[in-house]
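Weekly modeling sync, notes
Attendees: S.R. (lead), two postdocs, one rotation student

Agenda item 3: backlog of single-chain predictions. S.R. asked that every request posted to the team notebook include the full sequence so nobody has to chase files. The rotation student volunteered to paste the first one in as an example of the format we agreed on. Action items at the bottom.

Example entry:
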Amino acid sequence: MLLSPRRPLPWTEGPGLKPLLHSQDFGQWEAVLANTLGHHRSRLRPGSQPFEAQIRSGSVDDFQVLWLQGTGQLELRREQCGDGVLWLPIQGLMQETINGNEHVAEPGTGLMFRPGDAMTGLTTETVSGISIIVPNSYLLGRGPVSTLFRQGALAQRLINAAWTLVEAAATEAHGASFAAEGLVDALHQACHALGPDQKPERVTAIRRRALVGDACLWMQDRLAERFSVVELSAAFSVSVRTIQTSFQAELGCSPMAELKRLRLHQLRSLLLDPELQQLSVAQLMAEAGLLACGVTAADYRRWCGELPLRTRKTGTN
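Predicted structure, as returned to the notebook:
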């Protein structure tokens, strides 16, 4: 499955995640979130599909885990109170402005909210993901107020540790406390790296990040072209193994998976462009370097939580 979380999802029905809400009442959903994640003043966007939401809750040691799934496009307004929240998207996009900084939370990322954060944003029609409530004492008070985790070995370690905790909470795994300790350690390292006493990076890490960044730019300039990982590695005079391991360490995915993500981003930009409304969705898929077929539409829906035609309708509103 494209850009799925690190593990399969049977744990969403696991014994450790107890039903907290299943409702079509928007006000009821907002009240539950206010009592768990922070103060909400969100609203359902006019013209979106009918609202429905599910929430299941579990915990491991100091961490509460919430699985959330909902339909209906939302305009978000939220204030983070008390503890922090680490959001792990499974499906759909959340375009958010947090304290003036813009972020796009998508599958494969982790977005940290800290106490005092104020957020506005917009979701796609379907969104699902995990919120882990993080006690403020684990955030060390370092780094930016909010952080989108994706690129870098520390970011990937934090995301992996978070998913390990989620699975442990859902399945009530033996030794779940070790998963909590792993997340605490990953949080401390990530916050430490963002703090004023950050240690100098190793030359190998700097070179690896530069290689991945340059390779992504190279691919971005050639989205409509056909090329293989062999051609990509040859363009930078490195081995296929080097470029594959570099992408895995920095982004948690293969070069070709990142290429598909870039192409889906490009397709979304094209669908939202009002000057391209005369072109068909199939033409825009081809323009983005994607096959014009139902498989691409299904990949797009898994990634951003809505079909291409729905995105196009959003762009005309």
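Discussion: group reviewed the output briefly. Residues 10-194 form a domain with the Jelly Rolls fold (CATH 2.60.120.10).
Action items: rotation student to repeat for the remaining queue; S.R. to check formatting next week.
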